[in-house]
Write a structure and sequence with these properties.
mainly alpha; 434 Repressor (Amino-terminal Domain); 52% helix
């Protein structure tokens, strides 16, 4: 299986998409959403449902769903509980 690259080439002369999103905003949004995608893939690969993950992390299914789909405002303590339940650790780097 080949790796898919995310490409967004449809920019006008001002560097905006037809939806008015700049290239920079598009990629910043992609960076933010990578963590949600990663957590979802990790949960699925471990054979855990959203309900099961919510139960063992003292949160709700809707919180798990929101983090997987829109991870813009993740509470760090919640993230740590989720990652721990999935058998991983959180490492934060400030550049």
């Amino acid at each position: 299986m080949t790796e898919k690259k995310m490409v967004h080439n449809n920019y006008d002369k001002k560097g905006l998409t037809k939806d008015g999103i700049s290239k920079e905003d598009f990629w910043n949004g992609f960076e933010i959403n990578k963590i949600g995608f990663f957590l979802k893939e990790l949960r699925i690969s471990n054979g855990i449902t959203k309900e099961e993950l919510a139960e063992c992390t003292a949160t709700t299914k809707s919180v798990i769903s929101r983090i997987e789909n829109h991870p813009e405002n993740i509470n760090l303590s919640t993230l740590r509980r989720i990652v721990k339940a999935l058998g991983r650790k959180v490492k934060i780097t400030i550049l």
